[in-house]
Amino acid sequence: MNLALWIIAGLLAAVFLLAGANKLFIPQEKLARAPGGGWVNDFSAGFVKALGAVEILGAVGLILPAALDIAPVLVPLAAVGLAAIMAGAAIVTFRRQEPKHALLNLTYLALAVFVAWGRFGLQPFG
């Protein structure tokens, strides 16, 4: 179980690091033109940048605390935070009538919940 949790946390960290970097460094107009990126027009540029920064912090929080053995309780907390972000993303994509993107967001939500559940209860660190 520990290996599965590490693998899923690593995959989620890679996804959120990439997604967060895109939101933080790519202009909002260019993000809006990407497939499934129309949602950024519903939010301010500042919100999109802040969301990108939070996603990067969440990605780091999934890996570094446990890898460095410094406050590993932050791993499930980061997973809960990313799950909350994905719940919001799923709601936004459902409202925009984009079911494929909503399903992808729900998949990431489920994986983040699995990591949180696993690290809080099944296979906690230390």
How many helical stretches? 5
Strand content: under 5%
Shape: globular
Count of domains: 1
Uncertain segments: none
Straight-line distance between termini: 15 Å
Secondary-structure element string: HHHHH
Structural class: mainly alpha
Mean pLDDT figure: 94
Number of strands: 0
**Cα radius of gyration in angstroms:** 15 Å
The major β-sheet equals: none
Q: State the share of residues found in helices, binned by percent.
A: over 70%
Membrane topology: Multi-pass membrane protein
InterPro entries: DoxX
Protein name: DoxX-like family protein
GO cellular component, one term: membrane
Word description of this protein:
- The chain has 126 residues and is mostly helical.
- It has one domain.
- The chain has helices at residues 2-25, 28-33, 45-67, 74-95, 99-122.
- The mean pLDDT is 94.
- Its main location: membrane.
- It comes from Streptosporangium subroseum.
- The chain crosses the membrane at residues 6-26, 47-68, 74-94, 101-120.
- It is found in: Membrane.
List keywords for this structure.
126 residues; mainly alpha; 79% helix; 0% strand; transmembrane helix
